[in-house]
Amino acid sequence: MTSPLLQLSGIKKAFGAVTALNSVSFDLRPGEVHALLGGNGAGKSTLIKVITGAHMPDAGTVAVGGHPISRLTPAIARSLGIACIYQQPALFPDLTVTENIGLRLESTSPFRRVRHSERRRVATSLLRQVGAGFTGETAVYDLSMPQQQLVEIACAIGAGAKILIMDEPTASLTQPEQELLFGVVDDLRRNGSGIIYISHRLEEIFQIANRVTVLRDGESVVTRELVRTSGPDGTSICQGFDEADLIRWMVGRSVERTPIAIPPASAPNRLTVHALGCDVSGVRNVTFDIRAGEIVGLTGLVGAGRTELARMLFGLTPADTGEIRLDGVPVTISSPAAAVALGIGYLPEDRRRHGIILDLPVAQNISMSVQSRIFPMGWLRPDAEKTLAEQYIRRLDIKTAGSGAEASTLSGGNQQKVAMARWLATNPKVLILDEPTQGVDVGAKSEIHQHIRSLVDEGLAVLLISSELAEILALSHRIGVMRLGTLTAMFDGQPSAAQLMRAALGNQEPGDQPC
Amino acid sequence: MLLLTIELIFFGLYGRRFLTADNGVNIIRHSVEIGMLALVMLPVILTGGIDLSVGSLLGLCAVLFGKLWRDVGVAWPIAAVGSVVVGLTGGGLNAVLITRLRLPPLIVTLSTYSLFRGLAEAITQGTDAFTGFPESFLFIGTGEWGGLPAQAWLLLMTGLGIALLIHQTTWGRSIRAIGFSAEGAEYAGLPVQRRVACAYCLAGAMAGLAALTYTARFGTAKADAGAGYELAAITAVVLGGASIFGGRGSVAGTVLGVAVLGVLGNGLTRLPATLSTASELSGIVTGLLLLASLALPRLPGMLITSTATACERPRSTS
Predict the structure, then answer these.
(1) How close does chain B come to A180, measured CA to CA in Å?
(2) Contacts of A342 in chain B (CB under 8 A)
(3) Which domain holds residue B193?
(4) Residue B301 domain-assigned?
(5) Which of A217, B81, B189, B289 could form a disulfide with A336 if both were Cys (CB 3.0 to 4.6 A apart)?
(6) DSSP-assigned letter for residue A3
(7) Do A354 and B168 touch (CB under 8 A)?
(8) Is A371 within 8 Å of B173 when comparing Cβ atoms?
């Protein structure tokens, strides 16, 4: 048997205290499509970055064509024939297809003569290979997204790529465009290339893949061969496992729920959202409510519109349709300042950019959203600020050299606690937590979970956004699922992780309650 | 601080009649307008912005002040209020363009830098100058009070006021936060655009006030008043340790920066001919000082990174 094109074994990669990949093994044979599956944060992107040389693994070996590579850089990866086609092609929109291909393939020395006829010949032949229905003279600006992807593939072929990574290539494609792409993939496969195929559309996997590897929590859980047999009507039938198995592998064992006090049904609605939408952020027709003392979890795939919804509720991208009621009173939230004044807090996803200001002391970060309350007439009172800060440093057990230490000196978990302290200090009615434990070590994570639980005792309404199903399941009273910019399901009882994953992927079952 | 001490010693040793009370008064008199502008440039720079238009606005305010007093015929204190109002309006125009239309401060104030100067020249037809102001007004620029030049008291009050604003109020707090991370400040619910707008309005109003001391010092109001002062103000703020990217800087540092520039400008003119060709050196020395103050803190870091990459390179080919 020929050696595999690519062989990864025991790959480990950690970012600070967070383990992204923990012993991943993966191989790619010539002439196969190997699908890579996994939920958000399972480690797919990190693994791709290891293969393309963008990340150095902490441990483990990478072998290309049977030869171990000790230090893979993006340039070396390219020279070994590894190419990645991203969801959003990175072409120069104002140049023609031929020019784009030329820039990718030709020498990069700053001064050389461009041989236009040669360039045209190469581009034309490559475009023919991928079955493009447009000429090299077309400006990339005029191409549709799938056509641009074809250009990317043409570049990859032209560069002699034997290992092709396709990251959700069909996310924005229509059915016929998808068929066209699959045709090209088939051709590549026949020519002996290997394709790593990432997609959230499970039916595609069965249609095109030869093998499937499922990643979960940074580990390769399972690798299975897809055996195709021709059915009586000529369609191929896959044996061995089905979609339900895939979902089960992606979610893992059932997650234990720690019971949390369920708010009485009589508890008043804190936040009511009706038919909320915003064109700019692509969120439409979202309706839900959160009672006082309730945690509503919100999950969905990356790009489903969860953060966009949070940004609307916090006034960062104000909603242009629908209604928001706070304690039954209709409100307009036109800016974050207005949201804060109304008693809405938002712990953003990107802690370092938005959650805190790294260059400012801990105390200033904590007091930032309550300046008008603790500093009457805008006059600073350092002692009042210090008292406030120390109160929250104690309450959340923030590890810092003192309230005057710059936030940048704290660990990720403690920075996140500072960001949380800022919102707790505002005594909010509604608190939106967006991935509150992302990039936080295990210890700080369970502490943050405890604090979130204790919040609802004070009658807060919490909207908890998380990609981590275990987190959502452990903390939420009810769980909403977003897909393609709208809320598609709201689970009242105790849904299983598989149910949530199905809803997020868009495979609705009759048992699930539509919203 | 170190720089200022070196300057004082150097000019004290070599300058003619440098360390005299008279010359001290002289230095202060000449530094007042740049000092005022630097003090309001500081909050603008703290937000991460810049205001190139204050010098031109000073000129426009001076000319309109003269116009109000001579041609409209109002009493000078009322015309003085008018000057500040014009300054506030000019600053307000910058503020609206920067915070409402979200245009970059550098481009906005570069445009108004031309616009304000152009207006001043148009009003005076390029040649008209307003003179003959009453003694009571000229006192601001030439008189002495309590042992200090009259305008020094204005500068002192401005300095105290700005110091309190920047170091003792939530506004000062906010503009630093904005300078460090405008997005972070917005996510904290701070009214970012309003706070930034205040900084530009304040800068404009101060240009109107500085126009008065400038006019009173020279006794004439001409269209070229305050030309180049915006750059001197920025130089002083940066020399004073403020970061041009926003967030970092203090009033004390800015005051020192102004002092360094003022002493330097004055001291160079007082060097004996054997040592220098006098004031032509001022530009060179200022430029070198500014570059040195920016580059020196970075040098150690640069050396470390360059050796680090040098060490890494050989290993990359394996």
Answers:
(1) 40
(2) none
(3) 20-294
(4) no
(5) B189
(6) P
(7) no
(8) yes
Let me know if residue A189 belongs to a domain.
no
User: Do A361 and A336 fall within a single domain?
Assistant: yes
Could you say which of A336, A357, A372 has the minimum Cβ distance to residue B177?
A357
Per-residue pLDDT in tens (0 to 9) along chain A, 515 residues: 567 889 999 999 887 767 788 889 999 999 999 999 887 777 888 899 899 888 889 989 899 888 888 888 888 888 888 988 877 778 898 899 999 988 888 776 777 777 888 889 999 998 888 878 888 899 988 887 778 888 888 888 888 888 999 887 776 677 777 788 888 888 888 888 999 998 877 778 888 889 999 988 888 888 888 877 655 554 555 667 777 788 888 877 554 555 565 666 678 889 999 999 998 888 999 999 999 989 999 998 877 889 999 999 999 999 999 999 999 999 999 999 999 999 999 999 888 889 999 999 999 999 999 998 899 888 999 999 999 999 999 999 898 888 999 999 888 889 999 999 999 999 999 999 999 988 777 678 888 988 898 888 888 999 999 888 888 888 898 999 998 889 999 988 778 888 888 888 876 554 444 44
| CB–CB contact B173 A380 (8 Å) | yes
For residue A414, the one-letter residue type is: N
A167 falls within a domain: no
Chain-chain contact of B170 with A380 (C-beta, under 8 angstroms): yes
Q: Supply the pTM of this predicted model.
A: 0.78
Count, residues in chain A: 515
Q: Is B247 on the interface with A (CB under 8 A)?
A: yes
| Structural domain span for residue A421 | 269-505
Give how many domains chain B has, as a whole number: 1
Q: How far is CA B310 from CA A65, B298, B316, in A?
A: 31, 18, 11
Instruction: Specify the CATH number for the domain of residue B53.
Output: 1.10.3470
Encoded tokens for A55: 């990340």
Helix (H, G, I), strand (E, B) or coil at A349: coil
Nearest to B169 among A360, A369, A379 (CB): A379
DSSP state of A294: E
Bridge partners, residue A198, by sequence: A36, A167
Is B29 a member of any domain? yes
Which positions in chain B touch A374 (Cβ < 8 Å)?
Answer: none
Same domain, A226 and A283: no
**Shortest distance, CA A379 to any CA of chain B (angstroms):** 5
Specify if B212 maps to a domain. Answer: yes
Whether B186 and chain A come into contact, CB under 8 Å, resolves to yes
| Residue B70 covered by a domain | yes
Q: How many domains, chain A?
A: 2
Give the 3-state DSSP-derived string for A11-49, with helices as H, strands as E and coil as C: EEEEECCEEEEEEEEEEECCCCEEEEECCCCCCHHHHHH
**What CATH number does residue A59 fall under?**
3.40.50.300
Quick check: is A136 in a domain?
A: no
A248 lies in the same domain as A391: no
